[in-house]
Amino acid sequence: MNNSWSRMIGWALALGMVFVVLSAIKLFLQERAAEGPKPESPVELHDRLCADADRELPRACTNAVVGIRMIVHSSISRPTWNPDQWHAEALVEYFNKVGGVERRPVKFGFVVDTNRGATVLF
Question: Is the pTM of this model over 0.90?
């Protein structure tokens, strides 16, 4: 009989410990989520804006040139950390009005959309 009570007390203590540990983990995660996202460092912001610029350039080319066939070459000039001073150039092939293929250079500038916090081409 003493052995069964010892077992029950052992199981109760084990379950209590599991409950306490899981509650502490839940509380930690809730506090962390309540803090919100950490602000970006200048390097993280620059890296994210560079990635946005790389992603936006092909989209801008397809919007700027009707009948685009392919982007032959593209480059982005980032002379400073300020995206407003960045420029991009692309050489695109497109189908002309009679069905032939022609090449045309297109140039873009960048601005930061403060509502989205992303780099946008113009």
Answer: no
Q: Residue 11 belongs to what domain range?
A: 1-36
What's the average model confidence in pLDDT over 2-14?
Answer: 80
pLDDT at 57 over 80: yes
If one counts every other C-beta atom within 10 angstroms of the C-beta of residue 95, the result is 14
d(CA 67, CA 23) in angstroms, rounded, equals: 59
> Which structure tokens are listed for 40?
């970006």
Tally of domains in the chain? 2
Judge contact between 89 and 74, C-beta under 8 A. yes
Q: Spell 43-69 as b/e; 16+ CB within 10 A means b.
A: eeeeeebbebbeebbeebbeeebeebe
Q: What is the largest CA-CA distance in the chain?
A: 97
- Contacting residues for 60 by C-beta, under 8 A, at least 6 apart: 88, 108, 121
